């Protein structure tokens, strides 16, 4: 059994380019949050009326799916680092499966809004709702592919990069949830 060396405490785990990507994505989402919150100040009653149309139980279920999948991805990384390839694969594929569940619920969320006649043009709140959650869903899909891709090799370096991306996806959802669904 081969155990991979742990990163030095003064270095970032994974690849520098992945951290550049993560930082740039956080900045893009942060700009979207800032614009949404700024627009909310111009029409508080309109934003409140739009927000109550969202399905909060679906958002809560999606939160549980992503947080659990992040935990599974972290377990997969720990397994990869300890040389337990089979356990790594199972954890990463389970995390990817929960990510698929997230996308299914998000599609249900969009369909329910469409059934109410709500689209991007309905109100500025919905413009940013669809833009931010849609962009996030695209990142979930990319993360699923990354998790599946590195699961086959179960090499610690690849798993580290994929789980860093997946945790960014989790973090963005945890930031999106209060801004879009709860404020």
From TrEMBL:
One of its GO terms (biological process) is aerobic electron transport chain. The chain crosses the membrane at residues 16-39, 59-78, 84-105, 125-152, 164-182. It comes from the Bacteria. Its main location: membrane. SUPFAM superfamilies: Cytochrome c oxidase subunit III-like. Belongs to the cytochrome c oxidase subunit 3 family. This is Heme-copper oxidase subunit III family profile domain-containing protein. It comes from Gemmobacter lanyuensis. The lineage of its organism: Bacteria, Pseudomonadati, Pseudomonadota, Alphaproteobacteria, Rhodobacterales. The gene is norE.
